[in-house]
Amino acid sequence: MADNNKRDKMTLEEAGRKGGEETARTHDKEFYQEIGRKGGEATSENHDRDFYEEIGRKGGEATSENHGKDFYEKIGRKGGEATSENHDRDFYEEIGRKGGEATSENHDRGFYEDIGEKGGNARAKQRENDNK
């Protein structure tokens, strides 16, 4: 008799799968959007910036371990194309201005001298190659 009870019991995995299938069958997109919104709000209320930095770092590490250069080139291209389709020149001017301000706040004169020298060297090398 004990064997019959064991066979009739569903594992937690099976119960979860069946429950998920039933929920998917009986609920629409808006249901999932609403529970996602509520979950996001609850998470943001219960966690600080360090939490998000940590999960972002872990996610980035896991992604880089599983994907190569081609993956990043592909998603970068897709993201750039999507952004350019949805934004105009003013958008790019604004993010450029903000990026320049943030950079100037975080770096000193030596940083700019260094990148200027590197850029000059790269340009000179390119001219050399073009003249060959």
From TrEMBL:
In which residue ranges is the amino acid composition biased (Basic and acidic residues)? 1-117
Pfam families recorded: KGG (PF10685)
Region of interest (Disordered), residue spans: 1-132
Xref: PANTHER family:
CONIDIATION-SPECIFIC PROTEIN 10 (EUROFUNG) (PTHR36569:SF5), PTHR36569
Q: What is this protein called?
A: General stress protein YciG
Q: Which organism is it from?
A: Siminovitchia thermophila
